[in-house]
Amino acid sequence: MSESSKSKSSLNLNPSPTLQCKDLHEYLKSRSAQFLETLYNYPTICLAVYRELPELARHFVIRLLFVEQPVPQAVVTSWVSQTFAKEQAKACEALSELSVWQEAPIPGGMPGWMLAQSFKKNLKVALLGGGRAWSMSSSLEPDGKARDVAFLDAYALERWECVLHYMVGSAQTEGISADAVRILLHAGLMTRDAEDGSAVITRAGFQFLLLSTAKQVWLFLQHYLHTAEKRSLSAAECLAFLYQLSFSTLGKDYSTEGMSNNMLVFLQHLREFGLVYQRKRKAGRFYPTRLALNIAQVRGVGAAPLAAPAQARGYIVVETNYRVYAYTQTNLQVALLGLFTELMYRFPNLVVGVLTRESVRQALRGGITAEQIIHYLEQHSHPQMLKSETGGIRTSSMLPPTVVDQIKLWETERNRFTYTEGVVYNQFLSQADFVVLRDYAKQQGVLTWQNERSRTMVVTRHGHDDVKKFWKRYSKSS
Amino acid sequence: MADDDAPSDSSLLVIIVDTNPNQRYITEDPKVLTNCLDAVIAFANSHLMQKARNELAVIGCHFHKSEYLYPTPGKPLDVRQIDGQYELFTLVEKTIKMRLVNLIKSQPPEEKPGESLLAGAVAMALCFIAKFRREATPGLRITARILIVTGSSDTAAQYINYMNVFFTAQKQQVLIDVCSLDKHLSLLQQGCDITGGLYLKVPSLEGLLQYLLWVFLPETSERTKLVLPGRGRVDYRAACFCHRELLTIGYVCSVCLSVFCKFSPICTTCHTVFKIGGPLPIKPKKKKMKV
Questions:
Q1: How far apart are CA A337 and CA A347, in angstroms?
Q2: What pLDDT, in 10s, does the model give residues A243-252?
């Protein structure tokens, strides 16, 4: 028989990698407990982490906030009704994962929960006051050339679009700094062209473009923080500063006084991406823009658009006959639309396309998910779409339900295969040998597939060693 | 009340604080008001802390008028960060305290404090909610609720006004929560029951903030998952329109459903004249005919 003739079938498990966008919770989860400990020294981070927690977890935190001694776990359990025990377990897990609370024994031997000291202290500071002011000191005399909100919005949008335009390589903008290019390359959103070394967009890059602006900024900053450590910037300090920005007030100026040199460098980077506005490099004051404020809201981006600046109003109308009308002039938006629609006509201010099975499948092949397409259409839908009724059908989306369903169906029809890695065993000499090995594999729970007639079986990858050993023992003894 | 199970994008909370100086706990020790107010402000800020898009309004309710304490009409105060507190929270705290001082100062000096105008304040809150909903971005899911924090005693003088605002709130899918600091309030409890809100009489004023955070902070969708104090039995007695007394049995106008404790030939609300039939005619006994 032929254990020797096993052939490895190593399939690519994930044929079209989809861009991962972690939220703050997942990002923090992936970091060490020590890193979290330093983070919780900043009231802003505590505030942001609190907002990212599941609902029930927030309830637990707020009830424990003013309790000084550990609280029995059984008591915490009794706060939630029995029918929602699963959600409660999830909430407890989230709190432990982020080390917001720790297990603490209670005199009497019962296990108890206690909020992490620094987290508790700093959340209280953020909520009720006290402690030191955040590092952006605000003792400034009024700015002679104060900027209003509309100006800041326009500025932020222009800077951010600059990055996006650079990615699609449209010629209508000036370039961006080497640092920004390095981040794009690091994130895998762009790659060096093999021939002339110029940066070109990747598939992941196109998926990035389909995200909402808030998510784009957050993803970009995540990669920035990854590379930050190499440039002797502390990620914790940067993150704390980012959240300070996100909890500042739009249209107000803040002083750069008292900021460390590293933070001033960071500020200049943020200025380049449009997260803050500064008139001059040495101006001594800066204005946070809406981009910075939205970092804290990555998670809440549902059907409803953020209070978007007037220029970024939706421009897409989708009809039940799968036609897509986009009132736009920029090449970027047309190129994005072209990813998943078949473009039909182009007018000076209007592009008409149609969603077809072929065009959507092509996008899906490129690793774009149906969810991303639907979300993009929703996010940029024309104000008129928001007003229109969906013919009495209640949906969470303002798009025609038929279109949404069909796009999802087109996606699921591609997902008829599930891939698992495994090892094939075949050419057994006797039926008995086959049956013994098959039953053993089945017992171990590592059998993926078997066929008695052709005496073939497939064992999962991690079960292979075990089965091989068993087979050696078995063939020796017999 | 709302039929959605999904948590909303934004939740609007309107807090009505009763600042009437003739509440018992204030007349006993005026300093307690400051403590209670601090608790309410901390609670208001915790509401804003829940989600970035949560909204807040605070209405002060006095015996001569009700007024918005937060947000201020017109330009907001120019508040800069002083300590580690989130700037928005500082703004809320400063605004409420400043406006409350103005409200208390504006009370007419010679008048004896009367009853708090709670029903009017609720009506103001409903107006605020309606306006907020109208101006919100389309597609945004908003839930709204009202929290009344009061130590006044129960009177039936505003019975009709109360009932009007309760049913309006029910129609607008606005929850009314009541936190009573002193006595049991049967009328407001009815309002909670009608609109699906929670009623709690705080056993001690020291732990006010904890009670507020425990019972009133969770959103509607969250409340079903938590173990919260039971609704209990609700006293549904109506007040008569003539003497404002709570009744178990009374007379009801057949046209406008006004309630009276004594019979009157003309309805004072809709001026219907009732025909009095006099005592029911007694049927003459039929004489048994002997055959």
A1: 15
A2: 888 888 777 7
Rg (CA), chain B: 24
**Beta carbons within 10 angstroms of residue A25's beta carbon:** 16
Residue A68 has pLDDT above 50, yes or no: yes
Residue B58: predicted pLDDT: 94
Distance from CA of A274 to the nearest CA of B (A): 21
pLDDT band at A392 (very low <50, low <70, confident <90, very high): low
DSSP character at residue A381: B
Angle, CA B7 vertex, CA A308 and CA A368 arms, to 5°? 60
Kindly list the residues from chain A whose CB atom is less than 8 angstroms away from the CB atom of residue B210. Answer: 63, 66
Give the residue from chain A lying closest to B89, CA to CA: A127
Nearest in space to B121 (alpha carbons), one of B21, B37, B16, B41:
B16
B123 vs B241: which has the higher pLDDT: B123
The pLDDT tens digits of the residues spanning B19-66 come to 888 888 888 888 888 889 999 999 999 999 888 888 899 999 988 888
b/e for B124-135, b at 16 or more Cβ within 10 A?
bbbebbeebeee
For residues A217 and A160, the answer to whether their CB atoms sit within 8 Å is yes
Beta carbons within 10 angstroms of residue A376's beta carbon: 20
Nearest-CB residue to A133 (from B50, B82, B218) = B82
pLDDT at B264 over 70: yes
DSSP three-state, residue A11: coil
The model's pTM is 0.76
Asked whether the predicted pLDDT for residue A453 surpasses 70, the reply is: yes
Residue B75 CA, distance from chain mean position: 28
Question: What is the tens place of the pLDDT at every residue in A293-314?
Answer: 777 665 544 333 444 444 456 7
Hunting for tokens 């208001």 — which residue is that?
A: B44
Residues in chain A: 478
CA–CA dist B3, A467 (Å, integer): 55
Q: Kindly state the helix (H) or strand (E) to which residue B178 belongs, with its residue range.
A: strand B174-180
Tokens 């089945």, located at residue: A442
| A-chain residues near B226 (CB < 8 A) | 56, 59, 79-81
Q: What is the pLDDT of residues A299-355, one digit of tens each?
A: 544 333 444 444 456 788 999 899 999 998 887 788 888 888 999 999 988 999 999
Q: B-contacting residues of A 36-55, CB under 8 Å?
A: 43-44, 47, 50-51, 55
- Check A81 against B210: CB less than 8 A apart: no
Nearest to A304 among B88, B139, B226 (CB): B139
Residue of A40, A41, A49, A62 to mutate, testing the B interface (most B Cβ within 10 Å of its Cβ):
A62
Q: What's the confidence (pLDDT) of residue B274? A: 85
Q: Which two tokens stand for residue A261?
A: 């040199």
Q: Would you state the pLDDT for residue A170?
A: 55
H-helix or E-strand spanning residue A428: none
Q: Strands of A101-105's sheet, edge to edge? A: A71-72, A111-115, A101-105
What tokens appear for A402 in the block?
Answer: 């038929």
CB atoms within 10 A of CB A441: 24
Structure tokens at B237: 């007695």
**Token pair of A160, please?**
């951010």
Given a cut of 60, is residue A278 above it in pLDDT?
yes
Instruction: For residue A369, give both structure tokens.
Output: 């998910």
**pLDDT over 90 at A163, yes or no:** no
- Token readout for B154 is 């129960």
Separation of alpha carbons A352 and A302, rounded Å: 26
- Which of B86, B88, B206, B209 to mutate against chain A (most A CBs within 10 Å)? B86
Beta bridge partners of A80: B226
Determine the straight-line distance between the first and last CA of chain B, rounded to whole angstroms.
71
The amino acid at residue B98 is M
Phi/psi of residue A265, each to 5°?
A: -65, -45
* pLDDT given for residue A61 in this prediction: 92
DSSP, res B212: I
